[in-house]
Amino acid sequence: MKFGFSYVGLVFLAMLMIPNLIWTKNLPKDYEKYVKNENKILLAFERIGEVLVSGLVLIFKDFNLRSWTNWSWWLVAAAVLMVLYEIFWIRYFKSEKTMKDFYSSILGVPVAGATLPVIAFMLLGVYGKNPVMIAATAILGIGHIGIHLMHKKETEE
Length: 157
Known about the structure:
The structure is a single chain. By secondary structure, the chain is an all-alpha fold. It contains seven helices and no strands. The protein has helices at residues 7-23, 31-35, 40-59, 73-94, 99-102, 112-127, 131-156. The radius of gyration is 16 Å and the shape is globular. The model has no long low-confidence stretch (mean pLDDT 96).
């Protein structure tokens, strides 16, 4: 693990944040009804994971491009998942913006808006051989995916 700025991390973070900023003006119908029921423990995991992942992805240059090896496939896989994440958002923004739309899946990946970026950042951690990033994404995943799965379940009741 080598400290230094990660331009790949910055690109991943931008791919994560830009759609989320647009989303704040395009919330699904009845979203507020579900937010008030969020599990406080999962919410704590989510917030801690968000801070850790957002910081860590920028301060380790291990995530940057380097000479091609078979290990580079981890970065390719992470990038593909982030592209799928962008496709998820395009599809959501073109939809009627219901809770069902927001918690939809892509290619069998459940609650794609939560699952795809968490797995992508975890794979980025694998690519960078960075156990701290992997642990941070696990914390984020427990909270973020957990909350989204709970909301999805509530919408189906």
